[in-house]
Design brief:
single chain; 149 residues; alpha+beta; Ubiquitin-like (UB roll); DNA polymerase, domain 1; five-stranded mixed beta sheet; binds FE2/S2 (inorganic) cluster; Beta-grasp_dom_sf; iron; oxidoreductase
């Protein structure tokens, strides 16, 4: 089937299988920041935005994106780079494999919750796993980026 989507502000028409998942479809079309770890909604690596809200694209059928706005980290470069610099300065990035999905979730948090508490941050990021860092550096970086104590 054909779907019409807007990806990072640009319209696109894609041919997709009925059972194709959005993560794979995005990768097929060159959005290689979209990574996969579990394919079962458990790790957060595949996080993108659909109409401005974060979704786990490994378990969203591609046809569900028909007529909608998809945002990947390629479409949020200035904000992503600003936060990534803070992450690196806090020593919160090691292999970096989790970073695109993690950053997409942090940028969504910034839009959705003003002045979040540490508990709010932990709750919001609960679906984004990192096998390397132990999360303390990430928490410091998020607080610095959001300007919260
Ligand atoms: S690959 Fe989608 S949540 Fe893990
Ligand atoms: S930095 Fe390696 S998985 Fe997060």
């Amino acid at each position: 089937m054909q779907i019409e989507v807007t990806v990072n502000g640009k319209p696109a028409v894609w041919e997709v299988d009925n059972d194709a998942m959005l993560a794979e479809t995005l990768r097929t079309h060159g959005f290689l920041s979209v990574r996969k770890g579990c394919d079962t909604s458990c790790c957060g690596l595949c996080t993108v935005w659909l109409d401005g809200k974060p979704v786990l694209s490994c378990t969203v059928l591609s046809f569900r994106a028909q007529g909608r706005q998809i945002t990947t980290i390629e479409g949020l470069q200035p904000q992503a780079e600003e936060f990534a610099r803070i992450l690196a300065a806090e020593g919160a990035e090691q292999c970096g494999y989790c970073s695109p999905g993690f950053i997409m979730t942090v940028l969504a948090l910034k839009q959705e919750i003003s002045n979040p508490s540490e508990a709010d941050i932990i709750h919001y990021l609960t679906g984004n796993l990192c096998r390397c860092t132990g999360y303390l550096g990430q928490m410091r970086a998020i607080k610095k980026y959001l300007g919260v104590a």
